[in-house]
Write a structure and sequence with these properties.
This protein has helices at residues 2-40, 50-65; strands spanning 70-77, 93-96, 104-112, 117-134, 149-155, 174-175, 190-191, 201-208, 211-219, 228-233, 239-246, 249-252. The protein is α+β, with helices and mostly antiparallel strands.
Length: 253
């Protein structure tokens, strides 16, 4: 009986030791996993401050749109706050993916060499552009004068393709067709001005070797610079072809 009791005590002690050892192994295993996870996660102080990248993007857009966009409205869209990047050991490089684009949605590539990572920052730019508009009705073939047009600034989304942005590009040109008042003026609506008008007296210049001969004639049709028109020599009464080279001047070869 005594032997059986001693055997039970020994078995109980062995069982307790086994349980203690098992618990110790589990504790060490869990501690190892926790240490690995902790090591894998960058410390808060070692994270890349994203606000610096956003500010860098904003400054780049301001430089890009300067003197090209008026009253600009710039929105740099932030990435998810869950994104955590290790701090870059060198200045973050920023590349504009569409350097010739000044309005709408833009994409910038922010990259780090050490440690290596890359993210894409998007931004939206809105603003105004200059546009030449008519101040009154312009009739077909009418020559546009300074009082017929003005320069205004409109939201870029309302600017039609081909709209003129400088008054000098419109003044002196002819309207291909009638144009309503308060209309954006485009290059497709205009023609070069006539330098010679039908029925007007013109100088006829011809070159014979090194000698230049000048005579007087009458334009039988209107013409723009470098356009070929028909004129009549008033002395010979002959109709000849010539190229408009200056106001009321035609060159004959």
């Amino acid at each position: 009986m005594q032997a059986k009791t001693n055997r039970n005590k020994k078995e109980t002690m062995h069982f307790k030791k086994a349980v203690h050892f098992h618990n110790k192994v589990i504790f060490i295993f869990l501690l190892t996993i926790f240490a690995q996870k902790t090591a894998a996660q960058p410390a808060t102080s070692a994270l890349q401050p994203m606000e610096k990248i956003y500010q860098q993007t904003l400054e780049l857009i301001k430089q890009k749109t300067d003197q090209k966009v008026f009253n600009p409205k710039i929105e740099v869209r932030k990435l998810s706050e869950r994104l955590q990047l290790p701090q870059c050991e060198h200045p973050v490089s920023l590349e504009d993916r569409a350097p010739d684009k000044f309005f709408g949605r833009m994409t910038f590539e922010a990259a780090c060499s050490t440690p290596s990572w890359k993210v894409y920052i998007t931004a939206v730019v809105d603003g105004d552009l200059p546009a030449v508009i008519t101040t009154k009705v312009i009739l077909k073939q009418a020559v546009i004068k300074s009082e017929d047009v003005e320069l205004v600034y409109l939201p870029y989304r309302k600017i039609r393709k081909g709209t003129l942005v400088q008054l000098d590009s419109a003044i002196g040109m002819r309207a291909k067709r009638g144009i309503a008042a308060n209309s954006q003026l485009s290059v497709q609506q205009l023609q070069p001005p006539y330098l010679v008008f039908k029925g007007n007296r013109v100088k006829i210049v011809s070159q014979i070797g090194s000698i230049q001969v000048r005579s007087v004639g009458t334009a039988l049709e209107s013409g723009t610079l470098n356009q070929q028109i028909t004129v009549k020599n008033d002395s010979s009464e002959k109709e000849i072809k010539g190229i408009v080279i200056a106001p009321n001047t035609v060159s004959v070869y």
